[in-house]
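All the exercises in this workshop are built on plain-text protein records. A record pairs a protein's sequence with a compact description of its fold. Read left to right, the backbone structure tokens trace the chain's path through space. Once this layout is familiar, the rest of the handout is easier to follow. Here is such a record, shown just as it appears in the course material:
>
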Amino acid sequence: MAFALITTAENLLNALALMVVFYWQKDSILRWRFQWDIARRMLRECVPLLLSAISIVLYMKVDQVMLRQMVTDEAAGLYAVAVRISESWYFFPTVIMSSFFPVLSTTIRQDPAAYYARTYMLMRFMVALSLCVAIPMTFFSEPIITLVFGMQYRDAGPILAVHIWSGLSVAMGITTSPWIFHYGYTKIALYRTLVGLFVNLLLNLLLIPSLAGLGAAIATTVSYACATFGWYAIDKRAWHLFVMQLRALLLFLPYKAV
């Protein structure tokens, strides 16, 4: 909620700044005219993103709903505790990508080779950052859970140890957003999200009855990976990004420019 309020305030300040600039340039927004062709083009590009956002909300929350319906409220509560800690760090890759987005969006127009080199370096950084979070959390998930929420939630430790690895896919997934927007491949964002949603539903149905919250965590982690890497592996337009992602995951190899 706080992040949404901050974003809204920033947008309002940006709008006011633009109005001041127009005033200084002896211009006025009152002389703007609505152009249907631009509106239709923007609508075509935005609808897949809107549907993708809805799909993301669904498959980020569907596991908790299925846990409550298929197991018990207690299992859903333990899972929710683990997810709250795991998803809290998604904020950091998002902020980092927001800082790089303008530079990458400009670079891909002016020098595509430089864009891919910078994106590859950003991917490697995201992998390193994700591992720095995921590895310690895997081994110390139970003490962290008990420290934050108390001993009654220590059974959520194994769930957190698995679910924390979904952050790697999240961090890697957002690095390709400038490429998607520059080439107008907004449908790719929708398709890969739908793939993730389908995989998540299927694995939840298979794993929750026997593994409860741990099964839901496995389903989420695998579905995020499928959404981030799987679609790029089968889409010839994005195959080169898939190769970059694989190379970025191999941090033990020396850096090799793209």
About this structure: The CA atoms of residues 72 and 212 lie 9 Å apart.
